[in-house]
Amino acid sequence: AQRVTQPEKLLSVFKGAPVELKCNYSYSGSPELFWYVQYSRQRLQLLLRHISRESIKGFTADLNKGETSFHLKKPFAQEEDSAMYYCALLRGTSYGKLTFGQGTILTVHP
Amino acid sequence: DAGVTQSPTHLIKTRGQQVTLRCSPKSGHDTVSWYQQALGQGPQFIFQYYEEEERQRGNFPDRFSGHQFPNYSSELNVNALLLGDSALYLCASSPRRGSHEQYFGPGTRLTVT
Q1: Which spans in A14-57 are helix H?
Q2: Which residue is closest to A95 within chain B, CA to CA?
Q3: In A20, A70, B44, B108, which residue has its Cα 20 to 30 A from A62's Cα atom?
Q4: A53 vs B: CB within 8 A
């Protein structure tokens, strides 16, 4: 069975510092990986997905199949980045069944 | 477009009772998925509905059942409630089966006492 692990429950950085939210997965096939974000009092929303290879709000994430990781990075954190971040995996044949990690609360201090 | 809507926002039930949660998908979406999010955990997939049929199911007992209507809206029913069923229940819709685009609703907070 597939699994997503986010080893850090809490992550605190200062504004302008680099930030990296870790995500490791276990799945023998070719998964699709996503990062979802939930800002305070807002609903869960898609931040980015590995297949699009895009940068959203300055965040990037690279799928490393060798290390089975999909870490989320941003070179200069902003206070508005403070939120709960979830890494999620979609199996190729699972038709929308997302497997989520436990989430990381990111706090960016001024 | 209000996006995905869910009702009620929150409710309190007693152990052993039954509950029905409702979800209206985003306009143009025809696939609805339900997730359970316990406190401090990530969402867990319950099941998915497409063309009014359950297409996929996660590791949840038969006490959890659902329905999808011709207008694509959906209901989640939980029978014989347990204390452990207390959680935030999220509905997500997508424009077609298999799409990676899942749009989440605000959730229904269920408390079982």
Answers
A1: none
A2: B98
A3: B44
A4: no
